[in-house]
Design goal:
mainly alpha; Arc Repressor Mutant, subunit A; Tetracycline Repressor, domain 2; 2 domains; 63% helix
Length: 234
């Protein structure tokens, strides 16, 4: 088996279209309307991050977006409708990220490729952290949102299963179980760093996650130890 795959180029990641909620989907939006949707989505993310999803009201979102209730309801039916739009964005980005992971070889090039991918995962998770936490903390009662999360998880783990299956993995590593362990480790580390304020430096966390995943799942050969670097909060 080849140690790495220099001739394989990862596919381009899909950028999700920032769409509005139920009212916006019932008509064609002009440029100004699309800009307003983006402003409301960003305001919703900010409010969910600073106040918490459960405590956030539409008042908080429109205040952050510097707009009116009437404008909000032109594009979203409710706070839950806005969360659903953000959840669809998050699912699209996570699935595209899974698609972008090429074959991971056991050598230094494979480890570097995996580290880049882990860094991208962290960036996406940071952007949609409030949405993921609302899912994780059972604050969402909408069955459609729950199904979206389950469907997205299945698609992501399916892609990871394929990559793990073709790798020179250690004995006893079953691809599908390893794929769930892979995504579970990434998600939980980011969840606790973000929601519990654990004093872990970003670069150290990414280096450590990449090293553990590469060696433990992809059969990576341990290389030179990366210095721990900075410690403490971001």
């Amino acid at each position: 088996m080849r140690s790495d795959y220099p001739d394989r180029q990862p596919p381009r990641r899909q950028v999700p279209v920032r769409a509005g909620g139920t009212p916006a989907q019932q008509r064609d939006l002009r440029a100004q309307g699309r800009r307003t949707v983006v402003r409301l989505l960003d305001a919703g993310l900010k409010a969910f991050e600073t106040i918490g999803y459960a405590a956030t009201r539409v008042d908080d979102i429109v205040r952050t977006a510097d707009t009116s209730h009437g404008t909000f309801y032109l594009y979203f039916a409710s706070k839950e409708d806005l969360l659903a739009a953000l959840a669809r964005e998050c699912a699209t980005e996570m699935e595209a990220l899974a698609d972008s992971l090429g074959p991971v070889g056991p050598g230094a090039e494979g480890r570097a490729q995996l580290r880049t991918w882990v860094q991208q995962f962290v960036e996406v998770y940071r952007r949609y952290g409030p949405v993921v936490r609302a899912w994780s903390e059972s604050q969402v009662s909408d069955p459609a949102l729950a199904r979206l999360g389950q469907r997205s998880l299945r698609r992501i783990t399916s892609k990871l299963t394929d990559r793990i299956g073709e790798a020179s993995r250690p004995p006893g590593v079953e691809p599908e179980a390893a794929a769930f362990a892979f995504i579970g480790m990434l998600e939980r580390v980011n969840y606790f760093v973000l929601s519990r304020g654990l004093p872990v430096d970003d670069a150290v966390a990414v280096d450590t996650l990449a090293a553990v995943l590469h060696t433990g799942i992809f059969g990576g050969r341990p290389g030179r130890r990366v210095p721990a670097g900075r410690a403490g909060r971001r």
